[in-house]
Amino acid sequence: MRTLLLQGLLHQPLTEAPPRPEDVETRALAAQLDAEAQRRLGRSLSLRALDSGSCNGCELEMHALSNAFYDLERFGFKFVASPRHADVLLVTGPMTKNMREAAERTYLAMPSPKWVVAVGGCAIDGGCFAKSYAVMGGVAAVLPVDLRIAGCPPRPIDLLAGLLSLLKQPRAARNAPGR
Amino acid sequence: MHQFQTLSAVVSSGSVVQRHRSWQRILVNADAWRVAAKFLSQPQCTLAGLWGDSGSVHMAILDEFSYNLNILTLGCEGDKFPSVAKLHPPAIRLERAIADLFGYEPLKPSDSRPWLDHGRWGVRHPLGGNSASETAEPYAFLNASGEGIHQIAVGPVHAGIIEPGHFRFHANGEAVVRLEARLGYAHKGIDGLMQGATLEEAGRLAGRVSGDSTVAYATAFAMAAEDALGIAPPPRAQWLRALMMELERLANHYGDIGAICNDASFSLMQAHCAVLRERVLRVSDLCFGHRMMRDAVFAGGAREASVDGLSALRALLPELEKRFAAIVTVYEETASIQDRTVSTGVLKPELAKQFGAGGFVGRASGRSFDARRALRYPPYDGLEFEVPVLEEGDVNARVWIRIHEVKQSISLVKQILRQLPSGPARVDLVRGAGEGLAMVEGFRGDILAWLRIDADGRIARCHLRDPSWFQWPLLEAAIEGNIVADFPICNKSFNCSYSGHDL
After folding, report:
1. Nearest to A54 by CA among A138, A177, A160
2. In this complex, do B188 and A81 lie within 8 Å of one another by their Cβ atoms?
3. Do B204 and A14 touch (CB under 8 A)?
4. Does residue B498 sit at the A interface (CB-CB below 8 Å)?
5. Could you say which of B121, B163, B334 has the minimum Cβ distance to residue A134?
6. For B398-408, how does the pLDDT look when each residue is reduced to its tens digit (9 = 90+)?
7. Residues of chain A contacting B204 with CB distance shorter than 8 Å
8. Could you please report the per-residue DSSP string of A78-143?
9. Between B213 and which of A135, B173, B354, B442 could a Cys-Cys bridge form, CB atoms 3.0 to 4.6 Å apart?
């Protein structure tokens, strides 16, 4: 183990430069993170993952955000274990009918201000599961969605860009009322 | 009933509906069905699947000696059929799912509670004669009673980034007396969506049954569809599929070995394993245009690999071997992690055998089945690899099976890269009706795909059976007597699929 730890000290980190949020179509939606929230939370957002019936692909890429290449926590993002500690709910998968109540209760357990991000094609509109008897559709069928990150699953770099857009909202929104 | 001495006697009593090279489907009567269910408890037979169809139920039986697959079909008179679960407990949840989806009730069921149906679909028996739904009722969990026994309810929303499912513990102090899982939260109605889908649409659905096994599912579906249409994909496609399957296995094994250790708070392993996983995903992206190789396998072929990708993969292999060896040494030489994994969550070989547990769950508990070896589907019939088997059945054994399998997969990738045949990677599909079956070895275990294509070339019925059906119940057995705090590490060492099971 000593060798491995020593190598970690001697070698350059694997962590890569952050993506620019402009690279993805999330810019307009980022404006929804208002100035009041920015003032209260600073550059720090607690994330809570909610799987509303995904195939698990999006979860795997969300996990990847914590690896050495993307190192999510350097931007002030942190995955938290309880919705009561969370500012942002990252929802993956089509909203299944069997998960509806759990999703609503998770959202209600979060303190305000709070945001919902639909992660991946299924969360956006139900994807290829939209027409099923067991599926409500996208996350918006149940929760108010603030940001959409497309992909099947979205690459970690797209997730990162989307999340960063939440932090880098335009100055114009500074006078917007808090929520 | 006594005229049946062997399974083959049962099989020959029925009328053959479909006969293929490696499997056949037989229409049997209720007596033969009951006898077959009884044979499932014998060492020679393993239940490989049990699912509904319009007006009938199908039971897939794997012969553990010849590795032949037989499907027995029984008409459901009055929407009833003789219970398999009554004679063979691994069928319990499969029968509950059939009752939920089709409304076919097993006679004298072992467990009549709903399983996938939580009373929220607005419809009952969505694949059978559907009727309006009743309202959701509280679920009656299996009980445990005694002084000091308390319940712990977990989920469906969990603390980590994982899939939804509910776990109900009965604990005495720190010791788990009983665990019962309640699943179905991720039920997306895939069997229903499959009906009437084109081959292309159905292939995309198959690749989204369980996201971590997208290549394995797409391959199982494609092989079943090709079986139904009576075509063979070009050899290059078969080899490219195997290459993707092994990359998928590597990515999952690297990720999970790290994650298991992380559940014992040994995050160093996680950090290093996650780097290897990321490298595999990136090279997969370079080769096939998607990190998880989604939709890169389809009926009739596979996506061609990029030349740059293949040379990057060649260059990456020695790096993976070197780094992984160092990580394994850390695992081996750190007493504090061994203390958490050795003798934790023991799955007894008898249970692994009875349930026909596939993948590393089975192979860590003495069941050596590996579809790549047993069924020798191409190109694995021409590749050299070992199937590691251990007997201990604890978390440590499951980690070690995966460590050994990583080495085997690296070797397989090397062999595939050396021998990759040239030629086209896809063939045009013929239009036609038919029925097909395939079993492939995903990283988690054997995936069974069965489908029927109608005259329009659309899917009439497709059923995809995840290995988790036969692994989830075993997790409940393995955790018994362990401390509650060891549940995450036990659960991760099984790593059953929620979505693949819930469909």
Report:
1. A138
2. no
3. no
4. yes
5. B121
6. 999 999 999 99
7. 128
8. EE-S-GGG-SEEEEES-EEGGGHHHHHHHHHHSPSS-EEEEESHHHHH-GGGTT-TTEEESGGGTS
9. B442
Q: Does B154 touch chain A (CB under 8 A)?
A: no
Instruction: Determine contact: B34 vs chain A, CB below 8 A.
Output: no
**pLDDT confidence bin for A14, thresholds 50/70/90:** confident
- On chain B, the residues whose CB falls within 8 A of the CB of A127 are 208
Beta carbons within 8 Å of B121's beta carbon, 6+ residues apart: A97, A98, A133, A134, B133
From chain B residues 206-235, the ones with a CB under 8 A of any chain A CB are 208-212, 214
Torsions phi, psi of B17, nearest 5? -95, -45
Whether B142 contacts chain A with CB within 8 A: no
Pick the more confident residue, A4 or B250.
Answer: B250
Give the A:B interface size as CB pairs under 8 Å: 152
pLDDT in tens, A138-167: 999 999 998 999 999 999 999 988 888 877
Q: Do B499 and A64 touch (CB under 8 A)?
A: no
Contact B186 A51 (CB under 8 A): yes
pLDDT in tens, B21-37: 678 999 999 999 999 99
Q: Nearest-CA residue of chain A relative to B119?
A: A98
pLDDT score recorded for residue A179 = 36
Q: What share of chain B is helix, strand, coil (3-state, %, to 5)?
A: 45, 20, 35
Q: Hey, what are A15's tokens?
A: 């962590």
Contacts of B326 in chain A (CB under 8 A): 3-4
Tens-digit pLDDT profile for residues B19-76: 776 789 999 999 999 999 999 988 889 999 999 999 999 999 999 988 989 999 999 9
B212 CB neighbours in chain A (<8 A) are 56-57, 60
CB B79 within 8 Å of CB B35? no
Q: Which of B283, B278, B279, B308 is nearest to B293 (CA)?
A: B283
Per-residue pLDDT, A3: 83
| pLDDT score, position B430 | 86
Q: How far apart are CA B490 and CA B480, in angstroms?
A: 11
Higher per-residue pLDDT: B284 or B20: B284
Per-residue tokens: B351: 């249970």
pLDDT of residue A9: 83
Burial class (CB in 10 A: 0-12, 13-18, 19+), B447: buried
Pinpoint the alpha helices (H) of B18-85: 30-39
* Distance in angstroms (rounded) separating the CA atoms of residues B352 and B357: 5
CA distance to B87, B107, B111, per residue, from B142 (Å): 20, 21, 10
Parallel, antiparallel, or unpaired for β A95-96 and A135-137? antiparallel
Nearest to A134 among B157, B189, B498 (CB): B189
